[in-house]
Design a protein that fits this description.
The complex is a heterodimer of chains A (298) and B (182). Chain A has one domain (3-296). Chain A is 66% helix and 5% strand. Chain A is built from nine helices and four strands. Chain A has helices at residues 3-36, 42-72, 83-96, 129-134, 137-152, 155-183, 194-234, 237-252, 288-296; strands at residues 75-76, 102-106, 113-116, 124-128. With 182 residues, chain B is an all-alpha fold. Helix content of chain B is 80%, strand content 0%. Chain B has helices at 2-56, 63-77, 82-103, 107-111, 113-148, 152-159, 172-175. Classes of the chains: A mainly alpha (298), B mainly alpha (182). The interface between A and B is medium-sized, with 12 and 18 residues.
Amino acid sequence: MTLYEEIGNNNRVTIAMFLLYALLYGAVVFSLLAVSGVSPSFPLFTVATLVTLLFFYFIVFPNAPQAILSMTGARELRKKDDPYLFNIVEALAIGAGIPMPRVYVIESDALNAFATGPDPRHSLVAITTGLRGKLNRLELEGVMAHEISHIKNYDIRSMLVAAMFTMAIALMADIGLRMLRTRGGGDDRRGGSAIVLILAVVGLVLAPIISMLIRLAISRNREYAADASGAMLTRYPEGLANALAKIQTENDKGNSQINGVNDATRHLFIFDPAKKSLLGMFSTHPPMADRISRLKKM
Amino acid sequence: MKEIIAGLALIVAVIAVLIYNGLITLRNNTKNAWAQIDVQLKRRVDLIPNLIETVKGYMKHERGTLEAVTNARAAIMSAKSPKEAAKADGQLAGALKSLFAVAESYPKLEASQNFMQLQEELSGTETKIAYARQLYNDVVLQYNNAIQTIPSNIMAALFGFKDMEFFKTESEAERQPVKVKF
């Protein structure tokens, strides 16, 4: 696919995924109602879920970058520390039309980089000393363009919304199943069909798993999108392709551990630092070989 | 019947407003992007005095080369129209190229910290100018697409939104492939 086709395609896939989320959410709510009727505590649970989600979105989310930085021991880069890298990031931010993100460096031999922040005005990019040392100018530009594209496309925010959907669905499925257990037999307000009930229960059990799979699919899709947007920014897909190849070779030797990485932060990195060999659909990132071949075809 | 017509008219009006606002936003984006190029061009001009100072001591016999740079800078600062400024800008780019080519015969200069930092700064600024121009062309493309496609072309024609020009290189010389000799 050409560059332009890639970008359009990726955005359509994202929209489709979020529609799927909305459908799943609707199905869960429906199942919940089927199982419990309209229980008096239902409004309470809805409000509690909403408050939790708002708390995450407005309070936890804006402060998340600081937490990740402390966990990984990153230090902020001043222009005089590394004018070469600083100029690269500044130039790319100009090309992307966003304010320049702050730049951080992580002391580590692992080859990796990430970007985070609630919106382009409050964002940062980080790179390991290992990666900084290994890449040439074109490859560094490719990697940084990928990270800046994440910021510009509001991917971090999209992933948070996806995570919030997952939380809400898991919470409501849990409540639904509990209600089912405490309901007891013989309470037949809905006069209802056992089939609907069975489907609702199956739905509630499967919903958290399906929602996790959707979230991972969105994460992979946004990675492809950042690859394409980054290539568009530099007009040179090979830069990132070569950088990814270098990262893959190095990290295959088993050298990819970074301090402070856990399941909540794994998906932010350009290469999954905690990757065990799992089925593709459980990965936050698409396979490297796939990413490289898509870039080379642009 | 009257209510349906009124309802439709309202919907059309809302859509028209949204399109108009969109066009204004896109046009302002292009103005912003153009101004951003100027920011980087000014940065490049501001680096020149420092460069001349650093280089003067080492390159005592290259007055011609140094003067070319200083004159080009003066030409930029006194340019009265965008066309003049673009021409002077090309002049400066050429003069800088010669200066750095000549600097290669002065190993002591090349090794000095100051010079290396300035080289990185100037090179970085050239990259930023290039990206600023790229962004300008990207937003001009968005704007031109908007005023040429249906339905926004209707609003564009009604309110006099005109096509904008892409940034193009002025000189034929810049279109030739670069020859590198060692």
